[in-house]
């Protein structure tokens, strides 16, 4: 599989999978929704980042003594469809809480966060 180094090399009308996504090495942030590329904003605003950071700190402080993990973006969450053989939805929520460790792998979270 060819490594993609520029966003412009992608065909925005084509369906992609998580395997394809792993080959992309460009600076633009994207998500896959049912196989189709959705560009994310280049960088959230300062206000958004401050709010996200404060919320992340409070939630992390609460879950720090629990058996859950807290992750802030960028963190890949794959949302598999039971009938599909390939992951075609990959999102990067601002904040994720995962209590079921079996969902975690080297690539992020496989399944909906808790």
From TrEMBL:
GO MF entry, a single one: endonuclease activity
Transmembrane segments: none
Domain Putative restriction endonuclease: residue ranges: 19-107
Keyword Repressor assigned: no
Gene3D superfamilies reported in the protein's UniProt record: tt1808, chain A
Keywords from the named record: Endonuclease, Hydrolase, Nuclease
SUPFAM superfamilies listed in its UniProt record: Restriction endonuclease-like (SSF52980)
The organism's place on the tree of life at top rank: Bacteria
Keyword Ribonucleoprotein attached: no
PANTHER family: GLR1098 PROTEIN, RESTRICTION ENDONUCLEASE DOMAIN-CONTAINING PROTEIN-RELATED
Protein's UniProt name: Restriction endonuclease
